[in-house]
Design brief:
- The protein is α+β, with helices and mostly antiparallel strands.
- The protein has helices spanning 7-24, 39-51, 70-80, 100-105, 108-119, 234-270, 282-310, 316-341, 352-362, 369-383; strands at residues 32-33, 36-37, 125-128, 144-148, 151-161, 169-175, 186-192, 198-203, 213-223, 227-228, 272-273, 276-277.
- Bound molecules: flavin-adenine dinucleotide.
- Flavin-adenine dinucleotide binds next to strand 3, strand 5 and helix 10.
Length: 385
């Protein structure tokens, strides 16, 4: 497996890097408000992304997008990871957020109602898997969908749902057969957000500026035709969404490490204490070298994993590694950088405190480290010893 990027992706990387440093990073602090990009920045940067020919990157060519493979998306995520301009989880300037679930699993009639409007930017989707008693362990979900004639009746509670207050429809993960559990008892159902019985109970502030919602489902009636795939496919479908997310975490982590290395090295060279620049002290050099070493380790791992996915291979276990190492190493880089900056690292004059908050949060969202290690432990014990 060749870990070097192909020529066209190296060109994409250079274009994106110039875009980030020349046009986005200079405005990164004022560009967003909470989890949203301010409209004036969104419009300007989206127009520029179109001009650069980097638009609808997730969307297959047959639907009018660029149909980029995962490796190409890794390049985009890595470069955007350098800046705090984009609220870490959702805001995006390279086309509308079309989830892999909608692209891969919908029937033609469902595509008309749900996929196409999302591609055109007319509808916003969200996905609701997490519940008060089921986060890291999604097999524990309790929200039920019970068949009643040609409808499902959904009851339950979802928590931490990003865009839960704005979405037009909810990709809802629920139990259709309790006895089968995660092995064929969980389904994914598309639920229009204005269906009677859906209530957004509250939005929660978080340290990463995201504001996910708690949503109650009370006797929500949905046509059985809104099921995605077959009944019982929900767990597998949700895992598809999460696998992409794990690679994204790995790529963003590399971008964060790169930025922290640049900031840390620059500051260490110019900041003088006890008569010498910080850069001349071993205590400051070593954390910079650690960040450098982590980048050299992470890049081949993430590129290789994405390339293997594009080649149709099973990347499950490597995707766990990409996520927990990307988050952890990205956080450690932000933490070291903060220490090098001293008090200035805590201020909003620099992006470090935001990178630090974001990366600490990423270690929990979309699958916390312990749960990923648990899954990897099964693999390791199967393969070794
Ligand atoms: C800002 C934000 C946005 C989110 N957006 C969405 C969304 O759009 N849709 C959605 O469905 N979900 C979303 N989530 C949910 C997110 O994916 C979960 O928070 C995450 O999976 C962790 O679940 P939990 O918080 O319930 O932790 P828990 O499962 O309660 O775990 C708590 C801690 O214990 C550890 N732990 C758990 N089990 C074990 C074990 N067996 N051994 C050792 N340690 C263990 C965990 O790793 C974790 O550190 C979002 C969360 C946040 C904070």
């Amino acid at each position: 497996m060749d870990y070097e990027l192909p020529e066209e992706l190296r060109m994409l990387q250079q274009t994106l890097r110039r875009f980030m440093y020349d046009e986005i990073i200079p405005h990164e602090r004022e560009a967003y408000e909470g989890p949203e990009l301010k409209p004036e920045y969104r419009e300007k940067w989206e127009a520029r992304a179109r001009e650069l020919g980097i638009w609808q990157i997730d969307v297959p060519e047959e639907y009018g997008g660029m149909g980029m493979g995962l490796l190409a998306r890794v390049v985009v995520w890595e470069e955007t990871g350098r800046t705090i301009a984009f609220p870490r989880r959702k805001a995006w300037i390279f086309g509308h957020d079309v989830s892999p679930i909608l692209l891969q699993f919908l029937r033609e009639d469902q595509k008309e109602k749900y996929l196409w409007p999302v591609i055109r930017g007319e509808k916003l989707p969200t996905i609701a898997q997490t519940e008060p008693d089921a986060g890291g362990d999604p097999a524990a979900i309790r929200t039920t969908a019970v068949r009643d004639g040609d409808h499902y009746v959904i009851n339950g509670m979802k928590r931490f749902i990003t865009n839960g207050n704005k979405a037009d429809f909810i990709q809802t993960i629920c139990v259709t057969d309790r006895d089968k559990g995660a092995r064929g008892g969980i389904s994914c159902i598309l639920v229009d957000a204005d269906t009677p019985g859906i209530e957004v109970l509250r939005q929660q502030e978080t340290m990463m500026d995201d504001r996910p919602c708690e949503i109650a489902f009370t006797d929500v009636r949905v046509p059985v035709t809104n099921i995605v795939g077959a009944e019982g496919d929900g767990f597998k479908i949700a895992q598809t969404w999460i696998t992409f997310g794990r690679i994204r975490h790995g790529a963003l982590g590399i971008g964060v490490m790169e930025r922290c290395l640049e900031l840390g090295a620059e500051y260490a060279k110019q900041r003088v204490t006890f008569g010498k620049p910080l850069a001349e002290r071993q205590a400051i050099q070593w954390p910079l070298v650690d960040i450098y070493a982590d980048i050299q380790m992470m890049r081949p791992l993430v590129y290789k994993t994405a390339a293997r996915f594009d080649a149709g291979e099973d990347i499950r276990y490597d995707s766990y590694l990409c996520k927990f190492l990307g988050d952890r190493k990205g956080f450690e880089a932000a933490d070291s950088c903060m220490q090098i900056f001293g008090g200035m690292g805590l201020t909003t004059d620099f992006p470090i405190e935001k990178l630090w908050r974001d990366m600490r949060s990423m270690m929990i969202t979309e699958g916390p480290e312990e749960v990923l290690r648990m899954a990897l432990a099964r693999h390791v014990l199967n393969e070794y010893g």
